[in-house]
Amino acid sequence: MNEQRPTTDLTYDDVFLAPVRSGVESRFDVDLSTSDGSGTTLPIVVANMTAVAGRRMAETVARRGGLVVLPQDVAPEAVAEIVSWVKSRHVVWDTPLVLHEGDAVADALNLLPKRAHGAVVIVDDRERPLGVVDERCCTGVDRFARLGEVADRDPVVLPLETKPREVFETLHQRGSDVALAVNGSGELSGIMTRRGALRSEIYTPAVDSSGRLRVAAAVGVSGDVAGKTSALLEAGVDMLVADTAHGHQEKMIAALRAIRSVSPEVPVVAGNVVTAEGVRDLVEAGADVVKVGVGPGAMCTTRMMTGVGRPQFSAVAECAEAAAELGKRIWADGGIRHPRDVALALAAGAASVMVGSWFAGTYESPGDLQRDEHGNAYKESFGMASKRAVTARTRSDSGFDQARKALFEEGISSSRMRLDPNAPGVEDLLDEISSGLRSSCTYAGARTLSEFHDRAVVGIQSAAGFAEGRPLPSGW
Ligand code: XMP
What we know:
By secondary structure, this protein is α/β, with parallel strands linked by helices. It has helices at residues 55-63, 76-87, 105-111, 135-138, 147-150, 164-174, 194-202, 225-235, 250-262, 276-284, 302-306, 312-325, 339-347, 387-393, 399-407, 426-444, 449-455, 463-468, and strands at 15-18, 44-46, 67-70, 97-99, 120-123, 129-133, 156-159, 178-182, 188-193, 216-218, 239-243, 268-273, 289-292, 329-333, 352-355, 370-371, 377-381, 415-418, 457-460. It has 2 domains: 15-90 and 206-469, Aldolase class I (TIM Barrel, Alpha-Beta Barrel), CATH 3.20.20; 97-202, CBS-domain. Helices cover 35% and strands 17% of the residues. The strands form 5 sheets. Strands 2-3-10-11-12-13-14-15 form an 8-stranded parallel β-barrel, surrounded by 5 helices. Strands 4-5-6 form a 3-stranded mixed beta sheet. It has a 3-stranded mixed beta sheet with strand order 7-8-9. It is globular. The protein starts with 14 loop residues before the first strand and ends in an 8-residue tail after the last helix. One of its GO terms (cellular component) is cytosol. It catalyses: IMP + NH4(+) + NADP(+) = GMP + NADPH + 2 H(+).
């Protein structure tokens, strides 16, 4: 056995933030913009997991200032199509769900859970809005009834240029839930709820130099990394992520060199590591941001299978310090289950926090909404090293090779992620995270995330101390 690590390492539940004298009076005085080259205005990155990160997630999260990393299992042609779709979205108005008068109520009921705004717009053959259908319109109605018979024919329709504050006031006056936007030709161009209008005044979208929503993609570390890098850059991705469970390995270093041979400029995130040495080696090979986390993920079985990993708070603190010495940043990846975990990761020095499974149970994740035996809505999540993901990734291998690779799974193949009835959309979760984080900053007297890292006072607590902080009845 080699020399043991000399410290007792800690994770998020082991630590707490102490309040310090503060001159920051309002949560709205806090700026949550990042400084890691991701161009985000909220330090939240959605993990490159097939069950979590797709086009609707990418659009929705970027509109609120975060970033989604498209999974490496998506073929470059499909990534190109998704990226161009995301970049064609309006930065303020949400994308409507659209059907026609002759479609059935059942069609609307199937579509409604795809988006949090809860409405399907009925359009004519020139894309002009005729009405709106929501769940109320469909209640107690034959599933085969035509939408033209049940739609609300008098929706709020506004010019696309209308400011969110005015949208809010109009909806408030009319007692309506959603407003539709039309362009100069009267074509449907967007949809906004009252809460969406409010959010648009609070969040700032993450946009590229042309003002379009940002999106990142994972490049993988096997095969033709340079070729895949060129294809992704051609597709217009704003940031590349090269990650594997054990990022501190020769294959990762070779992959980083391959990426850098194609583009010295594109911001590159690499990982995952949990030590200062890992950070230094990946930065030396070309990483701008190092991703930290081995085994904390909700779908991970690595620590139980191998004993390998490191409690996440200590891993983040050590790696962030090592990266800062080189003028670089880190992302804390995995194990985020509450808003407090985000605040603690940033206090430890992370520039952004990566979230996977927590966001799987939302309207915007790619899976279909399902119901359990008690009628609760859920979506399925699975790990990217699970038998299910590995089998899908190795589809073109021989049956034997595919089975052999799937034998060494280190992830959960199926887990039910319940949609929280009080927070069923990813934006509801972003609201919880950002309001918690803004408040943490005011407790620390910080107006920016870098001030927060400098000023945060972190203490260590017992399990009883952590339990004391959980409200009763406990939904947390
Ligand atoms: P959360 O906790 O947010 O973590 O779901 C997301 C991160 O978990 C990692 N990940 C895995 N790790 N086996 C693993 O060991 C897996 O199957 C797996 N799937 C995801 C990954 O780093 C992700 O960003």
